[in-house]
Amino acid sequence: MLNIALFGPPGAGKGTQSQYLIKKYNLFYISTGDLLRKEIKEKTNLGKEAESIIASGGLVPDEIIVQIIEKTITDNPDANGFLFDGFPRTYIQAYILSGLMIKLNTSLSCLISLNVPEEESVKRLLHRGKTSGRSDDNEEVIRTRLKEYYDKTLPVMQFYKDRGIFTEADGTQSIEVVQEQISSIIDEELSKRLFNIVVFGYPGSGRGSQGKALAEKYGLEFVATGGMLEQEISKQTSIGKEVQRIYDSGELVPDEIVVKLIEQRLENSKNVKGFIFKGFPRTLVQSYILDGMLKKHGTGIAKIVEFEVPTLELIKRLDKRSKTDRGMPYDSSTAKIVTRLQEHEQRTIPVIKKYQQIHGTEKIDGTGSFEEVFNRLSFAVEHGIKAML
Ligand code: AMP
To answer: What is this structure's pTM?
Structure first.
């Protein structure tokens, strides 16, 4: 999700810029001022409480704000992202916003401050007052609103500076120039984002071939740990030699080696749009490792899919594959195939269950032709990828 807050004194141009941004980035607009004015118009209890405060230029209590904001956010869970105008206006509201974002499993992407000197704000608001019909667009109230801004709202900046998501634009420029400045801040934020997918499924479920095709379709990096280990062996690298020795002795490849390879891959992949992980994480330990590695790179898992194929079909597929040149050494006997299926059930299913609770996972029917399955997979991820890229 792309969640932006526009910050700045009254009259900085937040409302005007918002109208452009919500269209450009397909965001859901939340203006606490508009929401409050609606409550007043509808003569609700909240509106009655807020009316005289707004007319005098003071700030409405946080308790009222939290109610209107929470309702609007929870009524729109499918939004592509939110654009906040006039919120957060107090330090407490900054914490409220964090809490609401956590509830949606997301966070504020950035706070953009439109900088305008005090006298310019007054001039603009007086001009707007001629046509806005707003009770608070007159000089006396404007001065109170600005005082409230400098006393209570300005300290909110520090909250976001501390979190590294505070950005600024020069609000005195023309509308078009400010639009450009804000767009480039948002575009930069978007370009840093990665769309990371984890594909799960029993061996033989098609996660490898499907994941690879998906990576090609969307220009994502396909990270298949099994294949990476094979490559190290064939290139005779120092890691490859060590892995070969481990394979020969029948031991399991330790997590340290796989972690090293994935870290190298994450470090070396510049300008990528995201990663598709296959074969990792396989265990709960590895799932914590992946979460940590992605966090270190300022990113996380965006989508988890799980291919579903009946067990007998899996065995048939793996047996058939073992007789072709795509056959893997570990598919070479029924006993080995059964061990791998068991391994998945015992060690990887708990990982899927963990992710199911945290992120939600999407099951893909893995039966049918390659194209049929690929269409289902593309459909499942498309919306998310397009929203992100
Ligand atoms: P605005 O339309 O954003 O200029 O807001 C108009 C008035 O609504 C403000 O002067 C406040 O009285 C009230 N208001 C709007 N948003 C908030 C908020 N987040 N916290 C407290 N009061 C608010």
So the answer is: 0.65
